[in-house]
């Protein structure tokens, strides 16, 4: 099967450089344009199923790219595809966090794999949540399916790590851009990254 991994369009929070996990900023003007570009790139691909996170920016992106009135596409909201919960860091930028949460921020830098965001989610729980979600999606799909996943940068990086066998260590080895999609072919016991950020 083919997995088409789409990061939502840029939001106003992304533009301002804010930590944005479960906090939902609206799509920026640039984000809306990016979604239209992705729609154009995918117009010749027949998609059977579209799974999108429960956060508004992902659903708005899915609605901009795909026809929700289509009877040939199955649409499903999946909360396990949500971005990580940054807790009290939500809505704050790097400078603020590194200054006001300096000890915790250093712990995050030292080992993100074991870090739990203050009043938020641990990286391990986030990683496992996304992995379980994508396993269910794959198990419910057919070999010939083309499946679109509309989600977040962190979510997509977890999916790439899981399917390509990198585990936690590969998380920061990928940049997942707005306004692009990546494609993975999933086989029974392996997966191949066809391209990244097309």
UniProtKB/TrEMBL annotation:
InterPro entries: His_Pase_superF_clade-1, His_PPase_superfam, PG/BPGM_mutase_AS, Phosphogly_mut1, Ribazole_CobC
Keyword Translocase: no
Isomerase recorded as keyword: yes
EC number(s) on file: 3.1.3.73
Keywords: Glycolysis, Isomerase
Alphabetical list of SUPFAM superfamilies matching this protein: Phosphoglycerate mutase-like
Superkingdom of source: Bacteria
Protein family according to the UniProt entry: Belongs to the phosphoglycerate mutase family. BPG-dependent PGAM subfamily.
Protein name per its UniProtKB record: Alpha-ribazole phosphatase
Naturally occurring in which organism (per UniProt): Clostridium yunnanense
Highest classification ranks of the organism: Bacteria, Bacillati, Bacillota, Clostridia, Eubacteriales
